Amino acid sequence: MARILITLGDPAGIGPEIVDMALASGQLPEGHDFEIIGKRGTATPGRPDAQSAVAALEGLESAVRELKNGRAAAVVTGPVCKHQLKAVGFEFPGQTEFFAHAFGISRFGMLLTGHHLTVGLATIHEPLARVPDLVTMDSVFNIGSLTAEFLQKRGISRPRIAVAGLNPHAGENGEFGDEEKRIIAPAIEALNELQIAMFCGPGVPDAIFRNATGGAFDAVIAMYHDQGLIPLKLLDFDNAVNVTLGLPVIRTSPDHGTAFDIAGKNIADPSSMISAIKLACELAG
Length: 285
Known about the structure:
It is a single chain. This protein has helices at residues 15-23, 50-68, 82-87, 95-102, 131-134, 137-153, 179-194, 205-213, 225-236, 271-284; strands at residues 2-7, 32-37, 74-77, 109-113, 118-121, 160-164, 198-203, 219-222, 241-245, 250-254. By secondary structure, it is α/β, with parallel strands linked by helices. Strands 2-1-3-10-9-4-5-8-6-7 form a ten-stranded mixed β-sheet, with helices on both faces.
């Protein structure tokens, strides 16, 4: 029986209640042992503080120890408050980078997948002003190959993956920027040489996601956070799952945050947490 860890996240947020609702939903697959990690009585709902942040961080660190010792097949992480975590010494932009560092991984990526879209990100938690410098052949190649591997694990033997341009109209033949010709197109050529998926692009960003939702592609590679996550959360907010690619273990999480404004009111929607647990079970199995 596969052991799946579930961290509560920041106990002042909706993490504890959506975990409870997910486990009581009757929608989770059988044949798995679910173990909750975290301290429930360490915060007042809706009032995050240093104590709740420490509890969230301790939960993550405990999950890493269990995974490294081979005592669990996967971890599903509840939402955390990055601002509060930084105040107690958390040095990472998000949980994605935390897990990559914990396992000594340099080749990793963030992907979100829902009923309508699957989106990999060439850059993750970065200021928009830095994105043009961070979109490199290596970053595009890295997330492209990781996304192809993820789709193959889910049973798509030859995925169809569209790669978005960085600029409006994918640069309009250099009128609005040359990153498409100089960086993204060569990265796509290198990806296609791997023969693990069919990559196409650079595609016009304002149309490529519509084509993907229509069934033309199995995934889209976006150049930056909001380019990819705005369309995904518009369509799949209630069911999308965040996946850290490249780890030697499985890590998923809901696609939303702590929602302190509704914490403790038992009105939070557990759908994304349910999807995250189900995907962790699928990948572990």
